[in-house]
Design goal:
This protein is an alpha/beta fold and 645 residues long. Helix content is 25%, strand content 18%. Helix 11 links the parallel strand 12 and strand 13.
Length: 645
């Protein structure tokens, strides 16, 4: 800075500048700065010095700051206590050090696990191990934010979606001067919407094999045969199972598939269907055993659930009568977290990226893993920050291990105050998917489902009655089942459950289809995305051939990932491949893309292939058009217009 009359005095007050205002705005919070410097430090000056004792005092202050509000801390020149949860029993007693002290010099003692064990301490080792590990552990647990209030999802900034590789030029493509970028082109082929069911990855009706009550929910004297009938049920393109932790891992170290689950996977392969999966840590409809294995229950503390008023007692009766549903474990217990991490690792080794798995539900708090223990008023955590931090950590463990298979997080509002909003936000930001088990209850869930980013898939679970269809239940000519189906379509679902609530059988499902075939056929044809190349233009520009394809989506949802399109020769050689923007084409809209083919003489006979990219995996997509496709789902280009349109 210079003055018009004379030099100005330049004196940095706090060292290098930082965009604190921008960071505070983005994080919607306030920040404080804690300088660590000498009283004579000139901040980046040529003779800058830093007395090691000041650095040490600053480290002590920084370590305890995060918990000073909720846990008063005694700070003194000679002693401080760690308030980071993983190190609550640690205490450091440090001797004052002269200015010439070296970092490697032994200048204090550290007390671990109480005053009985005294270990000599080196500050370098302490900084590299204790403080660093403590801070890393705290970050690994995820900072408790409590900063995701209810919001309109349609205008919320979730980022730009999954990364798009080989992005195709998506226009505009003006043909006339002065803006012309291509010569005049001609529409050489069109496609129209198919009236058939077109199964693809990332969409479909989901036949429930088990849900809340395990195989007890399957109403049959022959469970194996009933499972086979459900797997073969023609309306369902996907399958769903919801075993408990105990069923999958009764003892530490390995997974042990129960017989019914092994049968489901075997039949799924035989019938070319994929499986969705949720592991329950709390299954209040299992009355014969706990959802958690004994090796967890023997070591992890449990907290009884309590009611806040008598009005809730009737709603809670079913849980109070079940000894396995009247408590919740201390999920933040160190042993629980260790066992949970092992379980997720074992599941990922078995299922992440498996061609048999469609998706996996995230572990969430409470009953059925939905994120609540309604109607009980409490949760097992000492405070909200601990609850949110614990569940953030558990979500991060799953995100780390399941890098290929989509995770679905429930849109359940945070009735039990455990951090659901933060989990849901992180799920969407990491390009994973969402689900709801209660579509007709909370408008907050309807907002999230129907206004989610277009690249995020949504699953709707809403059970059909277990009893036969009742024509007298119709209101103004619309049955409850038809009403349900219509509203699943209203929110633009990718998946919908075929599930007779606690009365699972293929016979029950078939009775509802026979009663309301039009409604079931309609949702089966339209659910999720249904993409096709609606318009295909061809042009010549000098020495090369060009194609522009206008892609349509006749479904009710965006593409849950990134659509890749490849132009191939007659013999299947790839000539040009690239991707549309994440989520496109949108329902009811055309998305154009250009394919430049320098070594191709004519467009006729070329083939268009589609794939969907989700979390680094590619899945084939069959075009949803009335025009005849090749056996592999590709479309051969051919003139099919009687006249220009």
């Amino acid at each position: 800075m210079e003055s018009a009359r004379k030099d100005a005095l330049l004196l940095p007050a706090m060292g290098r500048s930082a965009p604190r205002g921008a960071m505070e705005g983005a994080a919607q919070t306030r920040a404080i700065t804690v300088p660590i410097a000498d009283y004579h430090d000139d901040q980046d000056a040529a003779h800058e010095n830093l007395r090691l004792q000041n650095l040490w005092d600053g480290v002590e202050t920084t370590v305890v700051l995060p918990d000073m509000k909720s846990h008063p801390v005694h700070l003194a020149p000679t002693e401080f206590r760690f308030q980071i949860p993983q190190f609550q029993n640690y205490r450091l007693r440090a001797q004052p050090a002269p200015a010439d002290t070296t970092i490697g010099e032994k200048r204090g003692t550290a007390h671990f696990n109480g005053p009985q064990e005294i270990i000599p301490m080196q500050r370098r080792d302490f900084l590299k191990s204790t403080v660093a590990v403590a801070v890393a552990a705290e970050l690994g647990m995820g900072q408790a934010q409590a900063m995701v209030p209810a919001h309109n999802w349609g205008k919320y900034d979730f980022g730009s979606g999954p990364q798009v590789s080989d992005r195709l030029n998506q226009g505009p493509f003006p043909q006339y001067p002065p803006d012309a970028v291509i010569p005049t082109d001609d529409v050489v082929m069109t496609t129209t919407s198919s009236e058939e069911v077109v199964p693809n990855y990332g969409k479909g009706l989901v036949t429930y094999i088990t849900a809340d009550s395990g195989t007890e929910e399957i109403k049959s004297d022959n469970i194996a045969q009933a499972i086979e009938d459900l797997v073969r049920f023609p309306l369902g393109q996907q399958l769903y199972v919801r075993p408990t932790w105990r069923e999958l891992q009764p003892r530490p170290g390995r997974l042990e598939m129960p017989d019914y689950l092994s049968l489901v996977f075997e039949l799924a392969k035989q019938n070319n269907k994929r499986v969705g999966l949720r592991i329950q840590m709390c299954a209040p409809d299992y009355t014969h055993e706990a959802a958690l294995p004994d090796f967890i229950l023997e070591k992890v503390p449990k907290v009884d659930l309590v009611l806040s008023d008598q009005e809730s007692r009737a709603q809670a009766k079913r849980y109070l009568q079940n000894p396995y549903a009247r408590y919740q474990p201390r999920y933040d217990d160190a042993f629980f977290q260790q066992a949970f991490t092992e379980l997720v690792g074992l599941l990922a080794a078995e299922f992440d990226g498996s061609p048999i798995i469609e998706y996996i539900d995230t572990f969430m708090y409470g009953f059925w893993g939905e994120g609540h223990t309604w109607p009980f008023a409490n949760n097992p955590f000492p405070d909200y920050p601990t609850a949110e931090r614990t569940w953030i950590h558990m979500l991060e463990v799953q995100l780390e291990h399941f890098s290929k298979t989509p995770l679905l997080t429930n849109t359940q509002p945070d009735y039990s105050r455990v951090g659901n909003a933060e989990l849901l936000d992180r799920t969407v930001r990491s390009h994973n998917w969402i689900r709801s088990d209660t579509i007709f209850i909370e408008n907050e869930q309807i907002e999230a489902l129907s206004n989610r980013p277009p690249w995020i898939a949504a699953l709707l679970e809403q059970g059909l009655p277990g009893k036969p269809p009742d024509p007298s239940a119709a209101a103004e000519g619309i049955s409850p089942a038809e009403n349900m189906i219509a509203h699943v379509m209203d929110v633009g679902a990718n998946y919908w459950s075929l599930w007779n609530f606690h009365q699972i059988s293929a016979k029950n499902l078939l009775s509802y289809y026979h009663a309301y075939p039009t409604a079931f056929d309609r949702i089966n044809r339209r659910i999720g995305y249904r993409v096709r190349p609606s318009f295909i233009w061809s042009y010549k520009d000098g020495t090369y051939l060009g194609l522009i394809a206008g892609f349509a989506n006749d479904g009710i949802a965006g593409v849950p990932g990134v659509l890749r399109v490849t132009v191939e020769s007659r013999d299947g050689k790839a000539l040009k491949s690239g991707c549309l923007d994440a989520g496109y084409p949108l329902p009811g809209k055309i998305r154009q893309a250009q394919f430049v083919l320098p070594n191709v003489a004519h467009w006729e006979g070329l083939k268009l292939r589609a794939e969907i990219e989700v979390k680094g995996m590619r899945y084939p997509v069959r075009w949803a058009c009335q025009q005849k496709l090749n056996d592999d789902g590709t479309l051969s280009l051919r003139p099919n217009l009687g006249q220009q349109i």
